[in-house]
Amino acid sequence: MADRSSTLSAELQSRLGFALDAAAKAGEFIMSHYQSPDLAVDRKRDSSPVTIADRGAEELLRSLIDDQYGNDAVLGEEFGESSGTSGWRWILDPIDGTKSFIHGVPLFGTLIGLEHGDDQVLGICAFPALGETIFAATGLGAFWRIGSNEPRSARVSSVSNLSEATFCTTTIQGWDRIGRQDAFDRFCEEAAICRGWGDCYGHALVATGRADVMVDPLLNPWDCAPFVPILREAGGHFVAFNGEADIHAGNGLSVNAGLLNSCLKIVQPKP
C-alpha cells in the first residue's frame, strides 16, 4: 500500500507540474485577447457568452494534454468529453467568468481539475490578469502563488461564526432560479459582509482565507472540479448542498471548517 501511495504521489507531482505549465500557456493566449476592442462575443445555446479566447484556450489545453497524456479522458466546457483508457480525466474551464472577461474585469480564471477514478485529486485556479494561481494535489498541500514569487501555503480562515464571516456568491438571480431566495436572504442577514466576488474568484478567496464562504446555487462540473482538492488541502471543504464533495450536483459551496455545518443548515431544504 505504501509503494502504491508513493507512486501515486510521484505521478501527481509530475502531473501538477505539467498542469501549472499548461495553465500558464493558456493564460498567455487568453491575455492576448483580453480588453481587445475587436473581441467578438458569441452566444451559446444557454445564452451564456463565449469568445475566441475561451475556445482557443481549451483547444490549447487539450492539445497539450494529448501530447503528454494521450490516453487520458478530457471533459471541457467548450468541446465536451473525449474518452480515455488510463483512469485519469482532466476537467477544463478555459475561462471561468467569461462575463468578467468580456467586460475587461480581471476576476476570471482558468480552471484545471484532474480525476483519478472517481476522486478529484488535483486542482488549479489561475488568474492570468491578476498574476495569481492557487493550486493543490491530494497529499501535496495547497499553495498560492502571486506573480513570480515563491508559492506560499494556501489556508482557509479560522472564522467560526457567520456573524463574523464574509459571504460571497456569483449571481442573485441563480438563487431565484432554483427557488432558494430564502437561503440567499438568510446568508445576507447572518453574515458580516456579503459580496458578489463571484465565479472561481470567490472560491479562491475562501481557499486563501480572504473570504469565509462562497456559495454557488448553479454549477457545472468544470466550474468546481479543482476546488475539491484545493479546499481540502487548504483545510476547508468544497461540497454540494447535499454535503458531499460532488461536482455533479449542480450547486456547491467552498467554506472553511468552522462554518461548514452552519452553512449546510442554510442551503439544505427544511424537512
Concise account of the structure shown:
With 271 residues, the chain is an alpha+beta fold. The protein has helices at 2-31, 52-68, 98-102, 172-177, 181-190, 199-207, 221-224, 227-233, 260-267, and strands at residues 42-43, 49-50, 73-76, 80-82, 88-96, 109-116, 119-127, 132-137, 141-146, 152-153, 166-169, 193-195, 213-216, 236-239, 252-256. The protein folds into two domains: 2-153, Fructose-1,6-Bisphosphatase, Chain A, domain 1; 162-267, D-Maltodextrin-Binding Protein, domain 2 (3-Layer(aba) Sandwich).
Give an account of the 3D structure:
The chain is of the alpha+beta class and 271 residues long. It has nine helices and 15 strands. The strands form three sheets. An eight-stranded mixed β-sheet has the order 4-3-5-6-7-8-9-10, sandwiched between helices. Strands 12-11-13-15-14 form a five-stranded mixed β-sheet. It has a two-stranded antiparallel sheet with strand order 1-2. A hairpin with a 5-residue loop joins β1 and β2. α1 packs antiparallel against α2. The longest helix is centred in the N-terminal third of the chain and has 30 residues, at 2-31. The mean pLDDT is 96.
